Amino acid sequence: MIEPELLYELIGYLGSALIAAAFLGACLGLTERRPRWFLMVNLVGATALCFPAYQSGTAAALAINGFWILVAFSGLVVAWRRGISPSPLNIALYAYSAAAIALLLADWIIHRNLSMAALGGIIAMLLFMTGYWGLARNLNSARALDTYLWTALAGNLLYIPLLIRDGNLPILALQVACTAIAIGRLSHIHASRYRQRQSAHNGA
What is the pLDDT of residue 62? Predict the structure, then answer.
Protein backbone atom coordinates (compact mmCIF):
# COMPACT_ATOMS: atom_id res chain seq x y z
CA MET A 1 0.00 0.00 0.00
CA ILE A 2 1.41 3.38 -1.05
CA GLU A 3 1.59 5.95 1.72
CA PRO A 4 -0.47 9.13 1.13
CA GLU A 5 2.61 11.37 1.26
CA LEU A 6 4.34 9.37 -1.48
CA LEU A 7 1.16 9.25 -3.56
CA TYR A 8 0.73 13.03 -3.32
CA GLU A 9 4.32 13.52 -4.39
CA LEU A 10 3.92 11.19 -7.40
CA ILE A 11 0.76 13.04 -8.46
CA GLY A 12 2.71 16.27 -8.10
CA TYR A 13 5.43 15.01 -10.42
CA LEU A 14 2.75 14.15 -12.99
CA GLY A 15 1.44 17.71 -12.75
CA SER A 16 4.97 19.06 -13.14
CA ALA A 17 5.47 16.98 -16.29
CA LEU A 18 2.22 18.28 -17.82
CA ILE A 19 3.00 21.94 -17.16
CA ALA A 20 6.59 21.51 -18.34
CA ALA A 21 5.25 19.98 -21.57
CA ALA A 22 2.93 22.97 -22.02
CA PHE A 23 5.85 25.35 -21.42
CA LEU A 24 7.89 23.51 -24.04
CA GLY A 25 5.01 23.84 -26.50
CA ALA A 26 4.85 27.57 -25.78
CA CYS A 27 8.61 27.91 -26.39
CA LEU A 28 8.22 26.14 -29.73
CA GLY A 29 5.23 28.26 -30.78
CA LEU A 30 2.68 25.43 -30.76
CA THR A 31 -0.01 27.17 -28.69
CA GLU A 32 -1.78 29.12 -31.43
CA ARG A 33 -3.33 26.09 -33.13
CA ARG A 34 -4.68 24.49 -29.93
CA PRO A 35 -5.09 27.22 -27.29
CA ARG A 36 -7.78 25.36 -25.35
CA TRP A 37 -5.76 22.17 -25.17
CA PHE A 38 -2.80 24.22 -23.98
CA LEU A 39 -4.86 25.74 -21.17
CA MET A 40 -6.42 22.38 -20.25
CA VAL A 41 -3.00 20.77 -19.90
CA ASN A 42 -1.98 23.63 -17.60
CA LEU A 43 -5.16 23.26 -15.55
CA VAL A 44 -4.82 19.49 -15.11
CA GLY A 45 -1.15 19.87 -14.22
CA ALA A 46 -1.85 22.62 -11.70
CA THR A 47 -4.65 20.58 -10.13
CA ALA A 48 -2.29 17.63 -9.72
CA LEU A 49 0.22 19.94 -8.05
CA CYS A 50 -2.42 20.79 -5.42
CA PHE A 51 -1.64 17.56 -3.59
CA PRO A 52 2.04 18.21 -2.75
CA ALA A 53 1.32 21.92 -2.25
CA TYR A 54 -1.34 21.13 0.34
CA GLN A 55 0.91 18.54 1.96
CA SER A 56 3.86 20.91 2.37
CA GLY A 57 1.63 23.82 3.36
CA THR A 58 4.28 26.43 2.56
CA ALA A 59 3.60 29.90 1.22
CA ALA A 60 5.68 29.44 -1.93
CA ALA A 61 4.02 26.15 -2.84
CA LEU A 62 0.47 27.37 -2.21
CA ALA A 63 0.97 30.64 -4.04
CA ILE A 64 2.56 29.29 -7.23
CA ASN A 65 0.00 26.49 -7.40
CA GLY A 66 -2.92 28.85 -6.93
CA PHE A 67 -1.49 31.06 -9.64
CA TRP A 68 -1.30 28.20 -12.17
CA ILE A 69 -4.91 27.18 -11.50
CA LEU A 70 -6.28 30.72 -11.63
CA VAL A 71 -4.63 31.58 -14.94
CA ALA A 72 -5.49 28.30 -16.65
CA PHE A 73 -9.10 28.17 -15.43
CA SER A 74 -9.88 31.82 -16.21
CA GLY A 75 -8.40 31.37 -19.67
CA LEU A 76 -10.62 28.36 -20.35
CA VAL A 77 -13.73 30.22 -19.18
CA VAL A 78 -12.99 33.12 -21.53
CA ALA A 79 -12.22 30.75 -24.40
CA TRP A 80 -15.46 28.80 -24.14
CA ARG A 81 -17.71 31.79 -23.52
CA ARG A 82 -16.46 33.80 -26.47
CA GLY A 83 -15.55 30.93 -28.73
CA ILE A 84 -12.11 32.43 -29.31
CA SER A 85 -8.70 31.99 -27.79
CA PRO A 86 -8.30 34.19 -24.69
CA SER A 87 -5.83 37.02 -24.48
CA PRO A 88 -3.07 35.77 -22.17
CA LEU A 89 -2.04 39.32 -21.41
CA ASN A 90 -5.49 40.24 -20.09
CA ILE A 91 -5.71 37.03 -18.09
CA ALA A 92 -2.28 37.60 -16.61
CA LEU A 93 -3.11 41.17 -15.55
CA TYR A 94 -6.07 39.96 -13.49
CA ALA A 95 -4.16 36.95 -12.18
CA TYR A 96 -1.17 39.01 -11.06
CA SER A 97 -3.20 40.86 -8.44
CA ALA A 98 -4.84 37.69 -7.20
CA ALA A 99 -1.50 35.85 -7.04
CA ALA A 100 0.16 38.65 -5.08
CA ILE A 101 -2.69 38.75 -2.57
CA ALA A 102 -2.78 34.94 -2.34
CA LEU A 103 0.94 34.76 -1.65
CA LEU A 104 0.84 37.38 1.08
CA LEU A 105 -2.22 35.84 2.73
CA ALA A 106 -0.74 32.34 2.57
CA ASP A 107 2.49 33.56 4.11
CA TRP A 108 0.62 35.43 6.83
CA ILE A 109 -1.59 32.44 7.67
CA ILE A 110 1.35 30.04 7.85
CA HIS A 111 4.07 32.20 9.34
CA ARG A 112 2.06 35.09 10.81
CA ASN A 113 4.28 37.63 9.10
CA LEU A 114 4.88 39.21 5.70
CA SER A 115 8.43 38.07 5.04
CA MET A 116 10.94 39.15 2.42
CA ALA A 117 10.62 35.65 0.97
CA ALA A 118 6.96 36.36 0.22
CA LEU A 119 7.80 39.63 -1.52
CA GLY A 120 10.61 37.94 -3.45
CA GLY A 121 8.21 35.21 -4.48
CA ILE A 122 5.78 37.77 -5.88
CA ILE A 123 8.49 39.39 -8.00
CA ALA A 124 9.74 36.02 -9.22
CA MET A 125 6.25 34.84 -10.16
CA LEU A 126 5.46 38.05 -11.99
CA LEU A 127 8.64 37.72 -14.05
CA PHE A 128 8.13 34.06 -14.84
CA MET A 129 4.45 34.34 -15.72
CA THR A 130 5.03 37.46 -17.85
CA GLY A 131 7.53 35.48 -19.85
CA TYR A 132 5.33 32.38 -19.92
CA TRP A 133 2.23 34.12 -21.23
CA GLY A 134 4.29 36.08 -23.70
CA LEU A 135 5.39 32.75 -25.13
CA ALA A 136 1.80 31.51 -25.03
CA ARG A 137 0.76 34.39 -27.28
CA ASN A 138 3.01 32.84 -29.94
CA LEU A 139 4.61 36.11 -30.96
CA ASN A 140 6.40 35.92 -34.29
CA SER A 141 8.95 38.60 -33.54
CA ALA A 142 12.33 37.03 -32.79
CA ARG A 143 13.23 39.90 -30.48
CA ALA A 144 9.97 39.50 -28.54
CA LEU A 145 10.59 35.76 -28.18
CA ASP A 146 14.06 36.50 -26.85
CA THR A 147 12.70 38.99 -24.33
CA TYR A 148 9.99 36.70 -23.01
CA LEU A 149 12.39 33.77 -22.68
CA TRP A 150 14.87 35.87 -20.70
CA THR A 151 12.03 37.18 -18.51
CA ALA A 152 10.79 33.66 -17.73
CA LEU A 153 14.34 32.54 -17.03
CA ALA A 154 14.97 35.43 -14.64
CA GLY A 155 11.78 34.66 -12.71
CA ASN A 156 12.71 31.01 -12.37
CA LEU A 157 16.22 31.71 -11.17
CA LEU A 158 14.79 33.97 -8.47
CA TYR A 159 12.08 31.52 -7.43
CA ILE A 160 14.04 28.25 -7.35
CA PRO A 161 16.00 29.15 -4.16
CA LEU A 162 12.71 29.76 -2.34
CA LEU A 163 11.40 26.36 -3.44
CA ILE A 164 14.63 24.68 -2.33
CA ARG A 165 14.15 26.19 1.11
CA ASP A 166 10.55 24.96 1.21
CA GLY A 167 11.55 21.47 0.08
CA ASN A 168 8.61 21.05 -2.31
CA LEU A 169 10.21 18.68 -4.81
CA PRO A 170 7.43 18.40 -7.48
CA ILE A 171 7.10 22.18 -7.90
CA LEU A 172 10.87 22.57 -7.69
CA ALA A 173 11.23 19.95 -10.45
CA LEU A 174 8.77 21.91 -12.60
CA GLN A 175 10.64 25.19 -12.26
CA VAL A 176 14.00 23.49 -12.91
CA ALA A 177 12.55 21.84 -16.03
CA CYS A 178 11.20 25.18 -17.29
CA THR A 179 14.60 26.75 -16.64
CA ALA A 180 16.32 24.04 -18.68
CA ILE A 181 13.80 24.45 -21.51
CA ALA A 182 14.27 28.23 -21.58
CA ILE A 183 18.07 27.89 -21.62
CA GLY A 184 17.89 25.29 -24.39
CA ARG A 185 15.58 27.42 -26.51
CA LEU A 186 17.72 30.54 -26.01
CA SER A 187 20.85 28.58 -26.94
CA HIS A 188 19.18 27.36 -30.12
CA ILE A 189 18.04 30.87 -31.06
CA HIS A 190 21.48 32.41 -30.55
CA ALA A 191 23.22 29.53 -32.36
CA SER A 192 20.89 30.00 -35.34
CA ARG A 193 21.58 33.74 -35.41
CA TYR A 194 25.32 33.10 -35.25
CA ARG A 195 25.13 30.71 -38.21
CA GLN A 196 23.10 33.25 -40.17
CA ARG A 197 25.66 35.98 -39.50
CA GLN A 198 28.48 33.65 -40.51
CA SER A 199 26.69 32.72 -43.73
CA ALA A 200 26.06 36.38 -44.54
CA HIS A 201 29.70 37.22 -43.80
CA ASN A 202 30.99 34.40 -45.98
CA GLY A 203 28.59 35.34 -48.78
CA ALA A 204 29.82 38.92 -48.71
Answer: 60
Residues 122-160 as b or e (16 or more Cβ within 10 Å = b): bebbbbbbbbbbbbbbbeeeeeebeebbebbbbbbebbb
- The DSSP letter of residue 32 is T
The rounded distance, in Å, linking the Cα atoms of 110 and 122 is 16
Q: Which amino acid is at 89?
A: L
Q: Is 66 exposed, middle or buried (0-12, 13-18, 19+ CB in 10 A)?
A: buried
| pTM to 2 decimal places | 0.63
What is the Cα–Cα distance from 76 to 154, expressed in whole angstroms? 27
The pair phi, psi for residue 85, each rounded to 5°, is -70, 135
- 181 band by pLDDT with thresholds 50, 70 and 90: confident
Q: How far are the Cα atoms of 143, 146, 193 from residue 187, in angstroms, in the given order?
A: 14, 10, 10
Domain boundaries, the chain: 4-203
- Alpha-carbon gap, residue 103 to 95, rounded angstroms: 12
- On the CB side of 118, how many CA atoms lie within 13 Å of its CA? 21
Return the percent helix, strand and coil in the chain, to nearest 5.
Answer: 85, 0, 15
